Every structure is written in C-alpha cells, then in structure tokens.
C-alpha cells in the first residue's frame, strides 16, 4: 500500500480532508438514524461524550502540564457556542434532506468573513465582498423564495453556519495565544459537560442499534476533526479547502442509497455557487497573508545593521 509520506504535503492534506469529508457524511447519516429515536440534545451529548472517550488517549499523551491556560473564560464561551451550533446542525440534519442541509451549511466562510469585519475589525476589500454576496446568492438559489414555500426549517442549516462561523472566529482568537492541543482539550471537556445538562431533561435510553449509531457519531466526529487538523498543520488552508466541498456529493450518494433522498438541481447549483465563493475567499485570504508575511520578511532583511542589539557581531 502506498504510504502517504510519499505524497507531497498539499496532496496529503487534500487526501486527509477528502477522507474527513466522507467521515462527516457518514456521521450525518448516523445522526439522522439516532434522531429518529432520541432527542437531538441527547444525540449532541453522545457525540461529545464518545468523542471525548476516543480522544482521551491522545489527550493523556499530550500531558496535563501542556494544557494550562489563562483564557478559560473564552474557552467557556467558545464551547457554549459550539454546543448551540452542533445542536442546530443535528436538528437540521434530522428534519431536512441531508444534501440540501449540507449545501446550505457551506455558508460558514461567508459568515466568518462578515464576523471578521464586525468583531475582529479586519479590512475586507471589494473583491471579497463581491464573493461573499455571490455566496449568499447561492443560498437564495437553493431556497428559491417566491417560487416555493420557504419553511423556517430550511433556515436551520444557515443558522448553524452562522454559529459555526462564530466558533471559527473564537478559535482564531484563541490560537493567538493557545496551542491547538489546549483548545481541543477544553472544548472537548466543556462541550461534553454542557451538553449533558439539557440531555438529562429529555433522556431516553437508546436501543442496542442506536448505541452503535451514537458511538459511531462520536468516533467519526473525532477522527474527521483530527484529520482536518492534521491537514491544516501540514499545508495551507486554501490548498485543501476546495476538497472540503466533496461533502455534498458524498452526502448526496449516502442519502440516496440509505434513505432514498434525491437532491434537486437547485441544491447542486446553489451549493456550487456557495462553494465557489468560499473557495475564492479562502484563496484571497491566503494571498493577502502571504503578501503580508513577505513584506515583513523584506523589512527584516533590509533593516539597517545599526538596529542590531549591542554586543552582537
């Protein structure tokens, strides 16, 4: 079997993301199955609980000493928001055609762009604004207001995307001072505890089949997240982000064979528009970041020797 180490970093990153996308798609199917028997908040708890169990060996290997933080409040807020995003997403998967929900959920980068301007005071140029607007046109293509009744349920994946975008911004803030292992540790612990509280009030013991489903949700969620983290660690996000959108064809195929769902043409067209705009935004952000790094490197290179600290040779 060909080792992934023989592949270049971008190819390995792309492979990790494609496998993760397939894992997320299977996870969504298991969420649908579990939600037919259990309340969504209980499924949310099991997702976090089993993810914590499966990630425990990795967390222990990192070592408690490496998990200190001075930003516990921000971890707390990020985890509360993460629970809300997960619960809304699971609810949308349980009530809507799965491919349609996935296509609408592609709007996460669009909301993240808006949030970066509002909360992080980032400067967004005209082309990124046009791409963001273009992405929201894709949402309208899928929903088609005026030609069909737009149920409030159809807005659930968009709400989930907005909440996920807030998580992206919070993680972006945390990574300025925190190691990824620290963020993963506190997020896993807090989200498990926070999801347990509402789950207790609606608790129903799963059947044997559903035990396997909720355990699979946790396992696949943990593995897929680690694969994405690994991909982002070895290559630039803009190189692998296009492969994240394989979730739509994966989800469409799985939903067709598992439950007989067939997405309409507007789901494909709208999903494609949203994905194209998000990919463009990612490439623009990567180009701006590389340019800023190059300018910083150039300034360091051209800095006069008289600026060197005294005592150096």
Automatic annotation (TrEMBL):
Q: Which domain of life is it from?
A: Bacteria
For this protein, the record's PANTHER family field holds: ACYL-MALONYL CONDENSING ENZYME-RELATED, SOLUTE CARRIER FAMILY 35 MEMBER G1
Instruction: State the name under which the record lists this protein.
Output: DMT family transporter
Per the UniProt record, the source organism is: Kiloniella laminariae
Entry's family note: Belongs to the drug/metabolite transporter (DMT) superfamily. 10 TMS drug/metabolite exporter (DME) (TC 2.A.7.3) family.
The EamA domain, residue ranges: 12-143, 154-281
Q: Where, per UniProt, does this protein localize?
A: Membrane
Membrane topology of this protein: Multi-pass membrane protein
Which InterPro entries did the record assign? EamA_dom, EmrE-like
